[in-house]
Amino acid sequence: MPALAITAYTATTALGRGRAAQAAALRERRSGLRRNDFGRDPLPTWIGRVEGLEDAPLPPEMAQWECRNNRLAWLALQPDGLLDAVAAARTRHGAERVAVVIGTSTASIGATEEGYTRLETGADGVPRFPADLARMIVHTPHSPGDFVRAATGLRGPCVTVATACSSSAKVFAQAARLLNAGIVDAALVGGVDTLCGSVLFGFNALGLVSAAPCRAFDRDRDGLSLGEAGGFALLERAAPGAHGLQLRGYGESSDAHHMSSPHPDGLGASLAMRDALARAGIDAAEVGYLNLHGTSTPANDTIEARAVAAMFPDTLHASSTKGWTGHTLGAAGIVESVFALLALEHGLLPGILHSSEYDAACGPQIRFDNAEDATIRYAMNNSFGFGGNNSALVFGRA
């Protein structure tokens, strides 16, 4: 596929706001996980919580979108000059020629939960949401996409992708298709998901939440740590001879094996990785860093590690960064793409936090150690969602 330039990118996680905060924490092996203090009856687990959301309401002109999820989206738009880059693209191409493609898993369902806990019964005896939550746009999956479109003044195609944990990786693929078809000249892609009861108690009901900080690919791993995050990237067609970061390829698959478990042989994951490499026109041996989905659940990590070992040489540096941020669900794709881009831009190849006991089921590609400094040409990111919604991305330096 034709390379697409990444002209701006940013992320806000439990590690802080902006790229510099993410890079510093990765290099210092400083986790953003904390004991769970979210909600009225917190589960005994660890979470990646973004500081300051409770004290950061949306500006008054954006009040109709007010909720925790859109607050985080607004905070995540601010760092690293992203809004300036979007404004420049809007001027350069026209607002109608810039798409918005946003990934999420649960959108603003936290506001919907609150609405049900605060139901008010009217004179007619019919229960209703309280007036401050009677805003339909907040209670739809498209809430984050609609909010980002309004917040940036863009008027091109606007899509919200909700394919569970691969959502904000798939936004790159959708944007690439829009650009390559000539429908738009630029695309703002990203993702945002926030902590809520449905996520914490839902994953716990599936037996997937650990009481300790997650230990991806560790022999004794027993579940994930959940988190919240937001991030964005601006894609445009790459000018001939231009330098900088690029999206070089994407791969998508849907193995449809089970509602929440991946195919036991990793068929969908392997297909997504192969297609991403093929679109990028490179061999697996050319990839310098792979950010793994690596949720720290027993089955998922083993299946992903086997798929990676079958495709990549032993020299690959592969790691999961969820020990820093927690599993940010619909935002995982964009956050971990930012980590892959940091590896390309700064040569920062992170290891894995909290893991110490090597699992014999994992190949030598899985690196527990401290961050490695290396100049690489290509980096990948894997994102695999419930239902077998798989995505793999290849980024490169022009």
- Structural class by helix and strand composition: alpha/beta
The low-confidence parts are none
What is the total number of structural domains? 1
CATH class wording: Alpha Beta
Shape: globular
The biggest sheet, with number of strands, parallel, antiparallel or mixed sense and barrel status, is: 11 strands, mixed
| Strand residue percentage | 15-25%
Report the mean per-residue pLDDT as an integer. Answer: 95
Say what the CATH topology is: Peroxisomal Thiolase, Chain A, domain 1
Under the CATH scheme, the architecture is 3-Layer(aba) Sandwich
**Helical run tally:** 11
Beginning-to-end CA distance, first to last residue? 14 Å
CATH superfamily: Thiolase/Chalcone synthase
Question: How would you describe what is shown here?
Answer:
56% of the residues are buried. The model has no long low-confidence stretch (mean pLDDT 95). The radius of gyration is 20 Å and the shape is globular. It is an alpha/beta fold and 398 residues long. It has one domain (4-397): Thiolase/Chalcone synthase (Peroxisomal Thiolase, Chain A, domain 1, 3-Layer(aba) Sandwich). The chain has eleven helices and 18 strands. A hairpin with a 3-residue loop joins strand 17 and strand 18 (389-397).
Q: What order do the helices and strands come in, and which of them pair?
A:
Layout: E1 4-13, E2 16-17, H1 19-28, E3 33-35, E4 46-48, H2 68-77, H3 82-93, E5 98-103, H4 109-117, E6 120-121, E7 127-128, H5 143-152, E8 158-161, H6 167-180, E9 186-193, H7 197-205, E10 226-227, E11 229-237, E12 245-254, H8 267-280, E13 287-291, H9 298-311, E14 317-319, H10 322-325, H11 332-346, E15 348-349, E16 372-373, E17 378-385, E18 389-397
Parallel strand pairs: 4-10, 5-8, 5-9, 13-14, 13-17
Antiparallel strand pairs: 1-2, 1-11, 1-12, 3-4, 6-7, 9-11, 12-18, 15-16, 17-18
